[in-house]
Fold this protein.
Amino acid sequence: MGAIAAAVQACRKRIVAACTEAGRPTDCARLLAVSKTFPAAAIREAHAGGLTAFGESYLREALGKLDALADLPLEWHFIGPLQSNKTRPVAERFAWVHGVEREKIARRLSEQRPATLPPLNVCVQINVSGESSKHGVSPEQALGLARLVASLPGLRLRGFMAIPEASPDRVTQRSRFSLPRIVLEQARAEGLPVDTLSMGMSTDLEAAILEGSTMVRIGTAIFGARHYQEEGEIP
Ligand SMILES: *Cc1c(COP(=O)(O)O)cnc(C)c1O
């Protein structure tokens, strides 16, 4: 077995163990492989290892891989920050967007989603790190944006996404992941059709699953360390 396929198996074991610890079904959290910065060949290997859902953050890089891998039945998730002048290719070619944080972006994605495709699955990004992150809406604003997403014909509201500041401490990790869980519960209570909490990465997937994550976004633990800066668009 190749290194990537072995890493996929190890991740699946961690997910099953965390779901069990949480008292949840062992398939309670989907594994989204975050393939940003890695070549199409690595994605082929992960697909051969059983994965079908891949997350990308940099649009230009992502579109090249979508083209190169068009022969495979993959589900593409856009997980990076999205500028309003770049919504069209995302609306046309991705199945999910995890980081919606502005009404304007939501409206453009809905307008630009081709009528021939199912509605674009959307998670509203919640800022759980306060001042230290510029991305995501406050927990107080999240329900308002979720209601808007639910009302737009080209979009399907799925739930909420969060990227907490890294912490080595499980208790701190869990307290940060508890905020999106509470917002999801509020959204359910008012009848919004949500089923997804996109949270947990390579180092904190266990804490996220204990707080109700239904989709973990895993890069490093599958593909290894990334070798270039994660800032801006990759040339
Ligand atoms: C890069 C990235 C990940 C994956 O992080 P790892 O620590 O490598 O698992 C998950 N989510 C988002 C939004 C990312 O940008």
